[in-house]
Amino acid sequence: MIVNTVPAGWEIIYQQAHALLAAQIAYEWRTSYRPDRWVETLAAIAQHDDGQRGWAGKVGLTPAGAPANFTMLPFSLEQARQVMEEAARQGRWRSLLTSMHLSFLYEELRGQAEKTNAFLDEQLANQQKWRKDLKVNRQQAQSAYDLMQWCDRFSLILCRNQLPEAERALEISQGPDGITYYVVQQPDKSIRVNPWPFQQKSFQVEVEASYLLQLQFTDEAELNQALQEAPIQAKSWQIMK
Question: Would you say 95 and 127 are in contact if contact means Cβ atoms under 8 Å apart?
C-alpha cells in the first residue's frame, strides 16, 4: 500500500492501482519510442505489482498501529517469487520486464542471504534466456524496461504527493531515449514535464484512493475491514505541454 497522511486521517492507494496509473502514463508516450511489443509492454507496466502477498504477521501495520507504507516493509522472497509466477502466466515478454524490475529493486541486497543471491542469479539467467527466445537484444529489452521504470517512478511521484511547491522542478528519471525528465506543478495544479515526451499535447490520468478516518488499528483484520468500508475517490492530474 501507498500510505499518505491527509488532514482527516490516511489516504491509501493500492500498489496495483499505482501500476495502472503508470500504464496510463505509458499509453501517452510518443510513438517513436514505443517498443515493438507495445500492448504486452503496457500489460507488463499495468500488472508489475500483481502478486502482492496477503498480510501476515502485522506487515500491514506499523508498530504504532498505523497503516504501513510499502517502503516500510522488508524484502520478501516469497512475494518476489509470486510476482514472477503471476508474470509467467501472461508470457515471456511480461516475465522479462518484470524480472528486470525485480533486479532493479533488489540487486542491492546481493550478498545478504544465500537464497536471495540464488533468486537474483535466477533472474539474470532467465532474462538472458527470454531475450534469446524472443529474439531481442539487451539494448531493446533495456529500452522497454527504461520506459517501464520511468512510468513507475512518475506514477509514484503522483501517488505519494511528492510534487514540489512553488513551481520547483523534480527529476523523474532517465527515459528510454537517454534523456532525463523533470516534472513541475503549475499554480493552477496542472503538471508539466520537461522536455515533453508524450504524443498528445494534453491528457488526464487518475488513480483511485481510499480514505480512513481511524488513525490506529489493533490488528490487520481491523485495518482490512476499515479499508473495505472506506470511501473511495478518484485523484486526477492534468498533464500539459
Answer: no
Q: Would strands 170-174 and 180-185 be described as parallel, antiparallel, or unpaired? A: antiparallel
Nearest Cα residue to 143 out of 35, 37, 41? 35
The answer to whether the beta carbons of residues 181 and 194 sit under 8 Å apart is: yes
139-181 tens-digit pLDDT:
999 999 999 999 999 999 999 999 999 999 999 999 999 999 9
Q: How far apart are alpha carbons 76 and 231 in whole angstroms?
A: 30
Task: Count how many Cα atoms sit within 13 Å of the Cα of residue 132 in the half-sphere of its side chain.
Answer: 6
Which one, of 75, 28, 46, 65, lies nearest residue 191 by Cα?
28
CB 37 within 8 A of CB 26: no
Q: Could you tell me whether strands 2-6 and 191-194 are parallel, antiparallel, or unpaired per DSSP bridges?
A: unpaired
Helix (H, G, I), strand (E, B) or coil at 155: helix
User: What are the cell numbers at 111?
Assistant: 550478498
- Tens digit of each residue's pLDDT (9 = 90 or more) over 22-75: 999 999 999 988 998 999 999 999 987 765 655 444 458 888 999 999 888 788
User: What pTM does this model have?
Assistant: 0.92
Query: What grid cell was written down for 117?
Result: 543471491
Under DSSP, is residue 240 helix (H, G, I), strand (E, B) or coil? strand
Give me 151's grid cell.
512510468
- From CA 29, how far away is CA 193, in angstroms rounded? 12
Residue 15 backbone dihedrals phi, psi, to 5 degrees: -65, -30
The long-range contacts involving 171-180, CB below 8 angstroms and separated by at least 24 positions, are 173/149, 174/146, 174/150, 175/33, 175/146, 175/147, 175/150, 176/33, 176/143, 176/144, 176/146, 176/147, 176/150, 177/33
